[in-house]
């Protein structure tokens, strides 16, 4: 026979059931509260690079590589065809003004100088002989002119006498006419000799000018041969370092061929290279920053080579301070060509984040930082140190500039100490 349950037992069982339900509901509620925090990603503070948004200039730059080279390089070329007898200074050797770098066999140049001297002496003898001949011819014409002048004076005197006698009726008319003809003939002969003498002077002057021109040409050839012979000593005209010489003794060099190069290491410039993708943005006059270790040297883009070599554009940078002590020959440097500049704008130090219209940065909240919230931003110019912020951030806010691509889907990231 069934018996009714004890009321106290039923009451205790109901209390247990209600307590279990309440505990289960509380656990579920607690789980719902704590679950987002458990599922939210977190990152260690040590892994983050946090920077502050501030205001200042931002430059758009093209990053290139460069090599420091001497600003001036003296090229020594052989003024004559010669054989290299001895190399006195090898590449890397220091030279002072007047130091001889190479010894060249100048026997052929000396022979040419002697031949030119002989031709010059012959031409001078020819001039002296011609001048003597011309002087003799002029002297002969002068003597003849004196004789004809005397004949003309005698003929004139006879004409006067004949006229007097004719007036007195002592001579006939034909004798007077004969005296007049003789006087005119004497004058004509005198004028002819004078004209011959003037023509001879003009011919003499023309002949001497021609010989003098030949002499001048030969003297120029002699001076040039002498100058080439002096230059063939290959002496340095400045202090510097030999960067290249003819590699072998005994080699024959042609006239005008380079035999040595001397670099002036007191001042430098930079030869830069960059991908041809940037060729349209490069032009003369752009400001340039050359990074030498921790130092930045200002300069100007002096020239852009017109040809592209294997997808690479070459350009030259003239430095504002080419004698800076940090510069060394053949030193590899980073070159920043400035293509644009914003003078006063919001900016953030450059990091590993991506730019463009779809960029997003994590803005740090709390001090010390506890979490970071993802925020879309718009970035502008990208320089070597800073990136321009056109919208999405305010001055003074702190952002994570290290790589956060692993947390991209999350709107909030916790920061662990």
Write out key terms for the chains shown.
single chain; 417 residues; alpha+beta; Helix Hairpins; 6-stranded mixed beta sheet; 37% helix; elongated
What does this 3D model show about the protein?
It is a single chain. The strands form 3 sheets. A 6-stranded mixed beta sheet has the order 1-19-15-14-18-2, with no helix packed on it. It is built from 3 helices and 19 strands. 37% of the residues lie in helices and 35% in strands. The radius of gyration is 53 Å and the shape is elongated. The model is unreliable at 33-38 (pLDDT under 50). The chain has helices at 7-39, 107-167, 173-231; strands at residues 42-44, 50-52, 54-77, 82-87, 94-95, 102-105, 240-245, 252-253, 258-275, 287-292, 295-309, 312-319, 332-349, 360-365, 371-376, 378-382, 386-391, 398-400, 412-416.
